[in-house]
Fold each of these.
Amino acid sequence: MIGVLDLRGGRAVHAVAGRREAYRPVTTVAGRPIEPGDASALARIYVEDFGLAEIYVADLDAILGQDPQAAPVRELAAIGVPMWLDCGAASVEQARAARALGATRVVVGLETLPSFDVLRRISGALGVDRVAFSLDLREGKPLTAPGAAVPGDEPPERLAERAAAAGVGALIVIDLSRVGTGRGPDRALIRRVRRRVPHLTLVSGGGIRGPQDLTRMAGSGCDAVLVATALHDGRFPAPAPSADSRQAARRRAPPR
C-alpha cells in the first residue's frame, strides 16, 4: 500500500469521486483525531502506525494551475520515506522543480499532460525510475487536458502503451469517479493494462475497500495500490510499525 495525501491550501483533504470543490479536511485516521487537515500528522500515522513505506502526494492547487504548495510538500518529504508527487508537471522544468521539493518519483498525470512528446522529454531528463504516468480516468474514460495533443478517444490500455513508449518506469491507473467511494477498482481494466505493459511497475487507486482488495489487485497484476479513505475510516487495522520494511523500501527506491 502507498498512503495518499491530497493537499489543498496546505491542508490534507478527503477526496471523494473527483468532486474537488467538495473535498473537506481530514480530521480522523482509524478513529484517531488529528488537527483538521494536518498533512504531516496524517503522513506520520501512515508511516509510524500503519507501517507504510511510501506516500503519494497530490498537490491539488498545482494540478489546477495554481502555485505549488512547496512548504507542506517539503515537510512531507522530510518524513523520510519515498514520496510520489503529482503537482501537475507539464514540462521538464516543472518536473525538475518537483524533484527539488523532494519527490522520489514525479507523477505526470494525463489530465494535465500536453502531449506524449512532453512525457518523453520529462522521462529522458529525469530518468526512467523517477517518472510515473498517471492514467487519469473518469467513469472509465480518459481525462485529458483541454487543447492537449493527446488522443483521448483511445482505450485506456492504448494510452498506457503510449506512456510506456515515452519511457516512464511506472504507471498508475486511477478512476477519479471511484476515489473515496468504496466501489472497488476496475480489475478487468487493470488486467488489460497489465497485458499491454508487462514490464512497468503498475499501481492502481480509487475505491479500495479493504484488505481483500489487496489480494484481488495483486492477482490482477498490480504491484501496489494507492489507499486513503480505507485507512482513514479504519477498514485497515494498523499493524505494529516495521522499521525493517521501511528500510527495505528505501533501498528499493530510486536514488534522490
Amino acid sequence: MTGPLTKYRAMLAEGGLRPDPAQAMAVEKLESLNNALASYKPAQGEQGWLARFGFGQRSAKPLRWSPGDCESAELKQGLYIYGEVGRGKSMLMDLFFSSAPVEAKQRVHFHEFMRNVHAGVHQWRQDRSRKENDPIPELARGIARNSWLLCFDELQVTDIGDAMILGRLFQELFALGVVVVTTSNRPPDDLYKDGLQRERFLPFITLLKQRLDLLELNSDRDYRLGRKKGIQVYYVPEGGINGGGGGDADLARCFDRLTGGRAPRVEQIHVLGRSWAVPRSADGVAWFGFDELCRSALGPTDYLELATLYHTVIVSGVPALSPANRDAAKRFVTLIDALYEHKVTFICSAEVAPQMLYANGDGSFEFHRTVSRLMEMQSEEYLLRAHLT
C-alpha cells in the first residue's frame, strides 16, 4: 500500500499542496511509523488480551521506528502532533490513516471516543454479576481487541470526568501494545489547563510524554485562512429563513468549504460538570439552528467554551428580534460577544440584515453594539484574524 509520504509528494506535484517544511517533517515521521506497523504485533503473552480470548500465547513484537532523539525508541507507541489551527494536522492524519497497514484500526474524534468510554463504564456498572471493582482493564481490552491502532482527532480535555479516567485507561492501552496517533491544538503540558483537580490529571500528561513522540507542527501558514478568504458569511434568503430561499444550502456550502468536505458529527461540550450538544461539527466548525443556541438554557460560560473550542460557528434561521423574544435576543447578544472576543468566524442565515435585526422597541438601543460587531465580523480583516483559544 502506498504510504503517506508518497501520497503527500503526489499532492505537492499536482499542486494541491504548497511546500511546507513543518508538514514535510511530520509526514516523514508518519511514514516511518507506517513502515514499522507492517511488522508490529501488540503484546500478546499469557496476560495479554489475545490469550484471554482463547488465541493462545504469542510473544509481543516491539514497535521499532525512528521517533526522534529518544533513548528507548522501542518504548514509543505512537505520535502526538500539536500546533495551532489550520496547520494541516487533519490532512496529515488523513494520509496516515488511509495508508496504515493495519486492519484493526480506528480514527475517531477524541470527544466521541471518550463519550463511548463513559457509556462503556456505565454499562459495566449496571451488570451486578461482575466481581471486579474496576471497569477500566476490561474496557481497555475491548478497545484493544477491536482496534490496536487508535487515531484521535483534536485531543483536548475540558471535562473533569474525562480527566479522572484518562491516565488509568491509557496506561492499560499502552500495556496492551496499542499504538496511538493523535492531533491536538495544545502541547501535552497545556492539556486541561486550569481544570478542576488538575493535579490528578498530571500523570496522564507524563504518560503521554513518555509513550508518544511529540512533534510540533509549527508552520507559519494558517491554511484555513485561505478557505475563509472572500467567503460570504451573512445570508438573507430571498424566500425568508423558513421559506425555502436556500439559506441552509448556502450554509452547507460554507460548512463543506471550511471543513474540506468532512462529514458532520455530533459532539458534546462539557461545562461545569454538565454537557450540551453541538448537533453538527467537523474540523473546528460548529453548526446550530438559532433555537438550539439561543432558546436553550445556555449562558455566558457555555458561549465562551464554544468560542474557545471552535474557530467557526454557523447559525441558521436567525429571526427578527424584538421585545417579544427578548430572552433569545439577550442570549444572541451574549453569543456574539463571546465569538467576537475570541475572533471566531460567524456565519449565519437571517430573516433580515444586521441593521434590522432588532430595529424597534425596548432593547433596540442596546443592540447597536451587536449590529456593529456583526458588520465588522463580515470584513476580510476580521475573517483573517487568528482564532483565540
